[in-house]
């Protein structure tokens, strides 16, 4: 089982990243808000592998805390890898812990693919498990992601648009959300995505 990979980022087309590890290219599916360093000599991702009869997919995360929460999400009835990735693309670990702790059903239903029934199931099944996990990981998550690692994008707006579309938004709807983001030109891709999702929540 592959638990982590360290290599050079060859391309980043959210949510898919291509990582060169000693000449072998690994395709990783990442949360949209993952800090990606396109010009770094090497970057480390913690991974989770899902093996099916017809394919094998790797999911990458900037830290172990986010990967642990992803694995916890997969244990919930009705939550698969795609939805788990959408959840972690919308909310950070600490935000998700707060949402579940506060039983914020409305916030969960703003995640593409999460309806009322799924949101209710998330709240019920994750209330104790994720809250307990969050006590341990929130501080570590902040420490791991609190450094000056900013995502570098060739075109932040284009990548943000692609990311929103991959989350299930129609192109026109995704563009409208981005157009409503204040000072969008000054934001990097992860901040743009999060700001656009905030706009969707306010509707």
Describe this structure in words.
By secondary structure, this protein is α+β, with helices and mostly antiparallel strands. It has 3 domains: 4-61, Nucleic acid-binding proteins (OB fold (Dihydrolipoamide Acetyltransferase, E2P)); 65-145, Orthogonal Bundle (DNA polymerase, domain 1), CATH 1.10.150.20; 156-201. The chain has 9 helices and 5 strands. It has helices at residues 64-74, 81-90, 93-101, 105-109, 116-126, 129-145, 156-166, 171-179, 189-201, and strands at residues 4-13, 16-21, 24-29, 43-51, 56-61. It has a 5-stranded mixed barrel with strand order 1-2-3-5-4. α1 (64-74) packs across α2 (81-90) and α1 (64-74) packs antiparallel against α6. The N and C termini lie far apart (42 Å).
Question: What brief labels describe this structure?
Answer:
DNA polymerase, domain 1, 203 residues, single chain, globular, OB fold (Dihydrolipoamide Acetyltransferase, E2P)
Write the layout of secondary structure elements.
Elements: E1 4-13, E2 16-21, E3 24-29, E4 43-51, E5 56-61, H1 64-74, H2 81-90, H3 93-101, H4 105-109, H5 116-126, H6 129-145, H7 156-166, H8 171-179, H9 189-201
Parallel strand pairs: 3-5
Antiparallel strand pairs: 1-2, 1-4, 2-3, 4-5
Helix pairs in contact: 1-2, 1-6, 3-6, 7-8, 7-9
Can you summarize this structure?
This protein is an alpha+beta fold and 203 residues long. 47% of the residues lie in helices and 18% in strands.
């Amino acid at each position: 089982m592959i638990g982590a990979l360290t290599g050079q980022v060859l391309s980043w087309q959210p949510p898919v990243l291509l990582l060169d590890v000693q000449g072998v290219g690994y395709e990783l599916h990442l949360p949209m808000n993952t800090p990606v360093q396109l010009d770094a000599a090497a970057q480390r991702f913690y991974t989770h592998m899902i093996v099916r009869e017809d394919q094998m997919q790797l999911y990458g995360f900037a830290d172990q805390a986010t990967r642990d929460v992803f694995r916890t999400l997969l244990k919930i009835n009705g939550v698969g890898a795609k939805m788990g990735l959408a959840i972690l693309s919308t909310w950070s670990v600490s935000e998700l812990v707060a949402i579940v702790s506060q039983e914020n059903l409305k916030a969960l239903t703003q995640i593409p693919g999460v309806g009322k029934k799924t949101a209710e199931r998330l709240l019920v099944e994750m209330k104790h498990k994720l809250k307990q996990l969050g006590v341990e990981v929130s501080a570590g998550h902040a420490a791991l992601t609190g450094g000056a690692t900013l995502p570098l994008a060739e075109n932040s707006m284009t990548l943000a648009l692609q990311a929103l579309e991959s989350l299930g938004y129609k192109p026109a709807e995704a563009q409208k959300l981005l157009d409503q983001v204040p000072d969008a030109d000054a934001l990097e891709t992860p901040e743009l995505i999060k700001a656009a999702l905030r706009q969707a929540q306010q509707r």
